[in-house]
Amino acid sequence: TLTSRKHHSGTKSSKCGQGAEYSITFESLIDSLNEFSKEVSIDFYLFQETLVHNAKLVIEVSGERMEFNWHGKAITELSQVTNEWTKVNYTYLLPKNYFSGQKIKIYLYNVSNIPLYMDDVNIEFKE
Questions:
Q1: Is the N or the C terminus of the chain less surrounded, counting Cβ atoms within 10 Å?
Q2: Is this prediction's pTM over 0.85?
């Protein structure tokens, strides 16, 4: 969900939680990526009011030619900072068979009643 309530730069950020479980999602067809990529580096700014939530940064790879791959990294393992914007970086080693998938998605998942905000996202696939 886009919101203008909080933002790191610009006038809006992505909010999740409080009934809106998913942040804005990066989604790409895998065949448009470099087949030699071995990892994905995800940088973003995060604002969390408390650490009492179970939100996750999710990387999912799916397709008819592979088993569904879902990886969730707890946000509280990436940042313990509250009530201010903080830069978060996470590097994920892609599954060896990821290129036989069709789609990759990256997003925050938050089923709690605590809002989280994400802004200024940068995603880079690396060899």
A1: C
A2: yes
